[in-house]
Each structure stands twice: as C-alpha cells, then as structure tokens.
Amino acid sequence: MQKMNDENRENLTAKGFKQVGIDWLGTQGKYYFDVQDKQDSETQLEVSFSLAPNTEKNKLFEYLDTMQKDQVISDYSMADSKVRATYNESTEREIGTFIKGLAEKLEEIDARCVCSSCSSTEDLAYYASETSHALLCEDCARKAMNDLEADKAGKGNYIQGFLASLAGAIIGSFLWIVIGALGFVASIAGFAIAWCAFTGYTFAKGKLTKKGIVLNVVAIVIAFIFAQYAGLFIDFLKEVESVKGHPILALRVFLLITPEMLSDGEFVKGLLPNIGLGLLFAFLGTYRMIANNFKTAKAQENLKIEKLDL
Questions:
Q1: What mean pLDDT is reported for the chain?
Q2: With contact defined as beta carbons under 8 Å apart, do 169 and 197 qualify?
Q3: Are 45 and 37 in contact (CB under 8 A)?
C-alpha cells in the first residue's frame, strides 16, 4: 500500500480529515472530499467528490483543465455522480490548497454533493465501517445500519451449513486417502479437506460466525478421522489375502473387527506415530484457512457503521 508524503498527511490532518483505510475523508466548507493513495503510483493521490446534476458543471471542468495545464493534476474524470482528479504530489500547490480551490469553484456554481445511495443532497455525512465508507444521507445511513443489524440477527443456517461442510470435508478427505495409500502424507491434503469444508458451508449459506467456524472445525476433524479409518481399511485389503477381490465382504469383516482392533493396546500404540504425523500435516494444511476464516467471522460479528465526526 502506497503512502502519501508526510507534508500532505499533516496538511489533511490539520484540515480535520480522518483516515479510513487508504482513504482520507473530510470536508471543505459544505463539500465532502475523499483523498486516496493511488495504488499504481508513489507520487499521486486521487481526490474525489460527488456532484449532483448541475447545469454549470462545465465551469468546474474548465477549472480542472487549468489545474491540469499547471500540472497540479495529471487527469480527471466524471462517472455517474463521482468526480475524480489525480493530484500530483510533486506540485508546489499543497493538497489542502487544491481542495480549497475546488470547494470555492463548487460554491461558485452552487454545486451540491449527493448521497451515494440515492439522489438526496440533504443531511449528508460520511459513514464508515472497518471495511468501507460512503457518503450517505440520514435515511440511507439508517437503512444501512438496520440492514446490518438484521443480518447479524438473521438465521444462521447452522444445521444445513454443518451438513454441507461435513459432506465437503469428506469429499476433500479422498485426496488424503489417495496420497496415504501411496505411502505419503502431505499438508496439501489437509488444505483440501479444509477448503472443501468451508466451500460446502458457504454453498449452503451457513453464517460465517465463530460458532460457524467451530462447526467447520468439527467437520474437518470428522473427515480426518474418516480418512485415517479408510487408510486402515486399505491396509487391511492389502494384507488379508482371503478378502482380496471381495471389497464388500472385506468392508463387512473390517467393520466387525474394528472394536477388537481399537481395544488392542499394542495395535493402537503402533498407530500413534502415523496418527501423530497425520495430525501434524493436517494442522499445517488447515491452520491458515481456519485462522483466516475465524478472523473474518470475528470482524463481521463486530462490524458496525458509524457516522464520522468531521
């Protein structure tokens, strides 16, 4: 992420602008401005503002043409109601002075800023969450806040989400089983289990909350146990001559002897190294995805929209 130079940062701070992510939001007179670092340049900033329909907007464009000739800006554009100008930090004109000039020109043509969600020009303010911001009127801001709270309180679809997550994890475990049958263990197989689990959960519209993450982890653990058990069954097929070529019979026999196998302390002790290695690779393959989803879920649960005091 590029950063504006210290001089412009101090200039915007002195004008009461507040930083939200890579954006600096503030006002000049009755106009609202957004200053953002251009991600493809180390020496340019994007200054933007909204503009309601105005019969004299050509005078604003003439002013911007002058700024471009003076190399204060390198270009400008207007799409829908948003005007954007690329400010050159190398210019001798401070960013605050440029914004002030823009506001004076907007005042001259009696321009109005406009809500980003409707056509209202009254009771505007910047509203921001941790992930985004928008210039909204009071009615649209209230609706956005109500929608957010309704979404938080809405149905979680945890049961169908868990079932889909479990189905996805079991599908993902087949990679683990195949790699294990070849005599290897790989963290990519653990990643496949986690990816399929979260994909299934999302597909079933399970709510991504901390509770939802726990359900996904449970599904992943079950899939890991299934994969380990399937690996034992494959070893059984390889070792027992009497069931070779008879997979259904082999499965029935294996299910019948499973309790006896698991009650044999020496047998279980012999499995521990492989299980431990499997757990290590499962952890390596799933940890980052689980951690990232948990972070996202926590952020969504704590998400709120607030009016910026400028």
A1: 88
A2: yes
A3: yes
In contact, 133 and 50? CB cutoff 8 Å: no
For the chain, report the end-to-end CA distance as a whole number of angstroms: 25
Q: 245 in helix, strand or coil?
A: coil
**Residue 201 to residue 198: CA distance in whole angstroms:** 5
- Are the C-beta atoms of residues 86 and 74 closer than 8 Å to each other? yes
pLDDT tens-digit profile of 259-284?
888 888 887 787 787 778 777 877 88
DSSP class of 122? S
Both tokens of 274, joined, read: 């492989």
pLDDT at 243: 67
Q: Which residues sit opposite 50 in a β-bridge?
A: 82
pLDDT band, very low/low/confident/very high, at 1 (cuts 50, 70, 90): very low
161-206 pLDDT, tens digit per residue, is 999 999 999 999 998 888 877 777 667 888 889 999 999 999 998 9
Q: Tokens representing 3?
A: 């950063």
Q: Which of 137, 139, 144, 132 is nearest to 114 (CA)?
A: 137
Identify which of 289, 129, 281 has the alpha carbon closest to the alpha carbon of residue 202.
Answer: 289
The alpha carbon of 49 is separated from its chain's Cα centroid by a whole number of angstroms, namely 26
Contact present, 46 and 55 (Cβ < 8 Å): no
